[in-house]
From TrEMBL:
UniProt organism field: Actinomadura graeca
Protein name per its UniProtKB record: LysR family transcriptional regulator
Claim: DNA-binding is one of the keywords in the record: yes
Keywords: DNA-binding, Transcription, Transcription regulation
Matching PANTHER family: HTH-TYPE TRANSCRIPTIONAL REGULATOR YBHD
Domain called HTH lysR-type: residue spans: 1-58
A Pfam family that the UniProt record links to this protein: LysR_substrate
Family: Belongs to the LysR transcriptional regulatory family.
Annotated transmembrane regions: none
């Protein structure tokens, strides 16, 4: 039994396809198939059901899978331990971020990290906060900047790096455009333009409305504040925006802090509380925490 066979087996299982697994591994598909057939011959049982449109685990395959993953993890852990003891920092780190952050200057931090550790490959992925949290919990993402509601996600450690008020933004002809502030109860009776569920800012809005016994009327959802601002500018509703995003449209929209209660959104650096992290991931987390102290 070879580690390569276990690696191929895990890849096919995760991709549910020999073709996708081969592309992920950067090898030819026949080679993947041949190695897994050899593994099945050595174990004396089929590990994969190839009869359907997607590849599925057999009962024996499901029993073998956790051991295959554990073996691969043990080998990777041994390599990382040697690297750490010899002071060599290499490997791969994935950092996630919600789409709309501009003020963090993340590329500048990553450029400095790359200069200090050129052997570390870095992947940046953008997604909503729920997907980023799931990615960190599963180990696919090492650290991420996420928007927070009132609760910190279980299984993660967080460090708040941005905290700002939420604003309501309307086009100049809107009925609310003469106000300097707007109460949450007033907003709940208007058409709102908001980030979708799964974002921290939407969680802040929904939680505040629930606490006040209100049900917000969400007319439009969009994944990025600039799109929300554009929809509000067309008179399609009241955009709910973080202050930094709202200020960028002060010339086009009338801006009002949300009051009674005042709503505040938070962006936090987050990483997994438990489980193995590579030396490269630990180094990047330390760099980010120092760059954006709480």
């Amino acid at each position: 039994m070879e580690l390569r066979q276990l690696e191929y087996f895990v890849a096919v299982t995760e991709e549910a396809s020999f073709t996708k697994a081969a592309a992920r591994l950067h090898v030819a598909q026949p080679g993947v198939s041949a190695q897994i057939r050899q593994l099945e011959r050595e174990l004396g049982q089929p590990l994969l059901d190839r009869s359907g449109r997607t590849v599925r685990l057999t009962e024996v395959g499901a029993a073998v899978l956790p051991y295959a993953r554990a073996a691969l993890a043990a080998v990777e852990g041994a390599r990382l331990s040697v690297d750490e003891l010899t002071g060599l920092l290499r490997g791969h780190v994935t950092i996630g971020t919600v789409d709309w952050i501009r003020s963090l200057e993340l590329p500048s931090m990553l450029a400095g990290f790359h200069r200090d550790h050129p052997n570390v490959e870095i992947t940046v992925t953008q997604d909503d906060s729920v997907s980023l949290v799931n990615g960190m919990l599963s180990g696919r993402i090492d650290l991420a900047f996420i928007s927070l509601g009132s609760e910190r996600p279980e299984g993660l450690r967080t460090q708040v790096v941005i905290e700002q008020e939420l604003y309501a933004a309307v086009e100049p002809g809107h009925e609310l455009a003469g106000r300097s502030t707007v109460a949450l109860r007033t907003l709940a009776t208007r058409d709102l333009v908001s980030l979708p569920k799964g974002t921290g800012l939407r969680a802040v809005l929904d939680e505040a409305c629930a606490d006040a016994g209100l049900r917000p009327r969400i007319a439009f959802e969009a994944a990025e504040p600039p799109v929300l601002a554009q929809l509000a500018a067309q008179g399609l509703g009241v955009a709910i925006l973080p202050e930094s995003a709202a200020r960028a449209y002060a010339d086009e929209l009338h801006l009002m802090p949300i009051v009674r209660p005042r709503l505040r959104g938070r962006i936090a650096l987050a990483w997994r509380a438990e489980g193995p992290r590579s030396p490269a991931a630990r180094a990047l987390i330390s760099r980010a925490r120092a760059r954006w102290p709480a």
